[in-house]
Write a sequence for this structure.
């Protein structure tokens, strides 16, 4: 008999109606890094050598250095994080009709490649501790399939906002039920759990170097694999699945997913500043913690055993603030009017029109995260003066609410 555990760790927040936003609301000002002299040297060398196609020494060297930095056996660089996930799912054996357990609280790119394949997403709820999959809900799904003698579905975790999911419980569940695990570490490159990097605790993971990430190649991503064979298969599929013969021979459907040499040269330089960027983002978080003290905003603490990159600093309005008419959308609009970009948190995917009727296991935590949460400007180059301006706008908008004292903050 499998024991089903309950663990209600959610802070006291209200469950307000979902908010539909225009696409423009999902932009965030991240203070993109300037090209340093070191970075320009790498790019200039690549251009002068004429190795800018998706082959050559800069690409292979970047992949080798990324493997060293992330602690995985092998990597394969791609044109985007979504492409990397698509390849990871393919080489992990996901096929049309397969059930795949996925988090509802994540960006749609975690799940879109499963639709490319024709797999069936099964959504599970989220944990307030780390924004990751709720292990209790995951266990219910795996137990349900086991009791009905159905094949264990694959499982995907998404490490969000620089956090890392509760991998002890998730890995244990996957071992017990024989479920293969995949990691989407697009938002958490450089974050660690018990000293292991996000994206490398499963057999296959993926990360992103999109322009808004903590380090970037202007776009791009990578498959993070436990073996050279996995990375080699990803490399084959990324080059239109061409067979290794002198002529162009193709026996499988392939894709044009390979990163180019110029982006790889930039990526090599960016890897050298990753630790510094993480330190800068963590400093931004600590500055917000100090500046926002006294406001009805809750910052998510770093879980035990996790070293978070704080890619984005997120805050949640308290129940009291929500009950008095302060909403993330209201704060978002106030910041926008002041010329400051922010971002609402991910709207649960099982509530999206794209996934209407999809199976969902979990409570209302993911919805409440969306209803109460906001990501603040968090760029590595953000100054305390700029953060103070963010605080001033938030404080002014919150002051419009009709409550008289902040005593509820001690609840």
């Amino acid at each position: 008999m499998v024991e089903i555990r309950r663990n209600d760790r959610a802070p006291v927040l209200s469950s307000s109606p979902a908010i539909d936003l225009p696409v423009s609301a999902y932009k965030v000002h991240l203070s993109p890094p300037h090209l340093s002299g070191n970075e320009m040297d790498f790019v200039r060398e690549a251009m002068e050598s004429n190795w800018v196609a998706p082959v050559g020494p800069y690409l292979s060297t970047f992949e080798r250095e990324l493997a060293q930095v992330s602690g995985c056996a092998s990597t394969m660089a791609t044109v985007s994080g979504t492409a990397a996930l698509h390849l990871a799912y393919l080489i992990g054996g996901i096929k049309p009709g397969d059930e795949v357990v996925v988090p509802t609280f994540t960006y749609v790119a975690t799940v879109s490649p499963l639709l490319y394949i024709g797999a069936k997403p099964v959504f599970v709820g989220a944990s307030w501790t780390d924004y990751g999959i709720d292990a209790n809900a995951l266990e219910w799904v795996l137990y349900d399939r086991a009791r009905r003698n159905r094949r264990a579905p694959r499982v995907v975790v998404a490490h969000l906002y620089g956090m890392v999911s509760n991998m002890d419980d998730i890995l244990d569940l996957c071992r017990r039920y024989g479920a293969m695990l995949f990691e989407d570490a697009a938002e958490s490159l450089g974050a660690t759990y018990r000293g292991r990097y996000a994206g490398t605790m499963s057999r296959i993971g993926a990360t992103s170097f999109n322009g808004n990430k903590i380090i970037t190649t202007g776009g791009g991503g990578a498959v993070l694999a436990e073996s050279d064979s996995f990375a080699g298969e990803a490399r084959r599929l990324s080059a239109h699945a061409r067979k290794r013969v002198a002529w162009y021979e193709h026996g499988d459907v392939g894709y044009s997913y390979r990163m180019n040499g110029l982006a790889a040269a930039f990526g090599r330089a960016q890897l050298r500043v990753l630790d510094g960027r993480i330190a800068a983002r963590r400093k931004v978080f600590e500055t917000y913690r100090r500046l926002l003290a006294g406001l009805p905003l809750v910052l998510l603490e770093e879980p035990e055993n996790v070293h978070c990159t704080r890619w984005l600093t997120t805050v949640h309005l308290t129940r009291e603030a929500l009950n008095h008419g302060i909403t993330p959308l209201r704060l978002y609009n106030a910041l926008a009017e002041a010329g400051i970009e922010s971002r609402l948190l991910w709207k649960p995917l099982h509530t999206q029109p794209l996934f209407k009727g999809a199976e969902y296991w979990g409570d209302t935590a993911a919805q409440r995260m969306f209803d109460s949460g906001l990501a603040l400007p968090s760029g590595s180059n953000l100054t305390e003066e700029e953060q103070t301006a963010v605080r001033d706008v938030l404080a002014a908008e919150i002051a419009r609410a009709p409550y008289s004292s902040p005593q509820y903050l001690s609840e």
Summary: The first strand starts at residue 74 and ends at 78. Confidence is low (pLDDT under 50) at residues 1-35, 404-411. Residues 5 and 99 are 23 Å apart (CA to CA).
